[in-house]
């Protein structure tokens, strides 16, 4: 990731222009954007559903290109939704990460994928 | 979004540390990460499913906080998946946006949400 | 619904034959089938994402046909998953409905779509 | 599946009564029901996301019970959506299965999970 446009503000600017040029903002309620985000996430998942683990090798070059495009769609809808709801995604990640660190203390969950509420009480 | 950590590299660094401290990388095949991304996108959608449009006002402050956290989860899984597949998300967005501009020419689709393949031929 | 094949056993028989003829059972782990089910559910949702409410009139005949086919796909994957996990879907529905009746008492939630855990305590 | 209530009409009757008693039909637009279906499918998927294949043994008894309940939720929302759109699910499955048999001829696709459009032309 040494590309120049990896700042979320830049992606938001691209997405805003695309939407404004097509007058599609009228369809972009938070509800509709979260539906579209969910649909794109499933289109991404579709590429992996019958694979063993979905590594680059198992995917192959053509599928990897399609996967990249689905990932782009997911990110664009997420950024558009954040824009509608005035959510600062970077701050939201930091906040959620702090909660996750508290819920899943590293020394308790190391190497274990069970969800926090499934841990036996001390 | 005037916060400092809105660069995807920074979010990736946070996510990598969180995963490494818990030795959870062993579960993070691209297939599993895309499942987790889809699940988080649905948890986000759940907040909107019975609402009319899901504006900030309709959501209310408590739900908006939960929504912010689900959005953070979506972004973290997307960034972790990109990391596994060596995908530059900013470049992927630019590439996909260029394809979208060609598929949905602004002067043809303005104000119309039908998918490009549903447009009548000229 | 006055058609003859509305019994889940009949749908299971159709699905089993289709899968066996193609030797696709090898891909049908419960994990993969639940991914496929989720993907089909999203393909169904895609038809509704930019609509207001998605009535038959708003959908139109062509989209309704596509919607019917996505619904069929959802049901087939659900029945195949039930087959793999020895789940009796009819019994599961009765069991879950009994739980739902206890969680959402009719006289408390009438006309209100908030989830049960959001109800204020008595 | 030797239980008595495996006919889709019976499940529909249970679901209709549950909804009517709570006056929840007002929220059940086709759009909202397809969102809810997608959310329930993802809650089902969540149980499998970090597992290898999700067999009964790998799930364990407690998770299997939760999985059965998520499957019930998926089926109930599917049946409610079919009810709203006057879709005969049994007939839809037969129709879709006939299309699938034509798209994926058994002698061409045996043991191969690639999607039909990825098959090389003859």
TrEMBL record, chains A, B, C, D:
GO cellular component, one term: cytosol
Organism superkingdom: Bacteria
Pfam families documented for this protein: MazG-like (PF12643)
GO biological process, alphabetically ordered: dCTP catabolic process; DNA protection
InterPro entries listed in its UniProt record: dCTP_Pyrophosphatase (IPR052555), DCTPP (IPR025984)
Molecular function per GO: dCTP diphosphatase activity
Keyword field: Hydrolase
Name of the featured protein: Nucleotide pyrophosphohydrolase
Species annotation: Massilia violaceinigra
């Amino acid at each position: 990731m040494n590309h120049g446009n990896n700042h979320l503000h830049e992606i938001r600017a691209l997405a805003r222009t695309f939407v404004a040029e097509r007058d599609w903002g009228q369809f972009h309620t938070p509800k509709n954007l979260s539906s579209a985000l969910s649909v794109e996430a499933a289109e991404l998942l579709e590429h992996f559903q019958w694979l063993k683990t979905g590594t680059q090798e198992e995917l192959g070059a053509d599928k990897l290109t399609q996967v990249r495009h689905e990932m782009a769609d997911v990110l664009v809808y997420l950024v558009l939704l954040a824009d509608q709801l005035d959510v600062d995604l970077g701050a939201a990640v930091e906040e959620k990460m702090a909660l996750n660190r508290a819920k899943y203390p590293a020394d308790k969950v190391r190497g274990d994928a069970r969800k926090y509420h499934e841990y036996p009480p001390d």
